[in-house]
Amino acid sequence: MQALILAGGQGSRLKPITDYIPKPLIPINNVPIIEWQIRYLKKFKIENVVICSGYKSEQIQNYLEHKRNFGIKIQHSVEDVPLGTGGALKKAAKIIKDKTFLVLNGDVITTIDITKLYKTPNAIALVELRTRFGTVDFDGMRINNFREKKHVQNVWMNAGIYHLEKNILKDLPRKGAIEDTVFLNYAKKGILSGVSFKDVLWFSIDSHKDLEECSHALAFKSIKK
């Protein structure tokens, strides 16, 4: 199975860090996001990874070229101007060799078992929505308890991991987001599937707070092992 990592964004919410390095090279517990992702994919027997990059792409390429111990084939598809997730995949079409392939958003850190997606083409991994704030148990005017952030049961969100058929490439826009174009059209036609995952570690690194929380979660997971 071939996997594409969408790593072309500018990471504007993570400034000023991203003024100097691209988002995929931001370290979490001393390991860059892109390396966490490659290690994750390799764990599930992925042997061919395509990095779809744009902003400061040369830094990403230089880092990966100097880290030659991944043991998998790494290729690059570089966009000269921002193309969005759909456009980035379409640009990488000539590198995609298999009938189906995986896509991973470049800011996702997770323990999702992606092999559960393999049997379902044109499928999106789903995770339960997690509130960004603590909640309060409230009865009339009396507060009974405070609760930490938690998952909202049976309210699902896009986890940023996809298993797609190669023929989807012809439907992708040359510029624009796959989520706002093809996925909407396929959903209306009833040809888009979702595979749900409960009780998994999942972070989308969009802010400095996400970095901190993901760092703590990964450290705790390592300690438990």
UniProtKB/TrEMBL annotation:
Pfam families: NTP_transferase
Statement: the UniProt record of this protein carries the keyword Transferase: yes
GO molecular function terms attached to this record: transferase activity
Domain Nucleotidyl transferase: 3-215
UniProt key word DNA-binding: no
Membrane-crossing residue ranges in chain numbering: none
Keyword terms of this UniProt record: Transferase
InterPro entries: Mannose-1P_guanyltransferase, NTP_transferase_dom, Nucleotide-diphossugar_trans
Top-level taxon in the UniProt lineage: Archaea
The protein's name: Nucleotidyl transferase
Species of origin: Candidatus Nitrosotenuis uzonensis
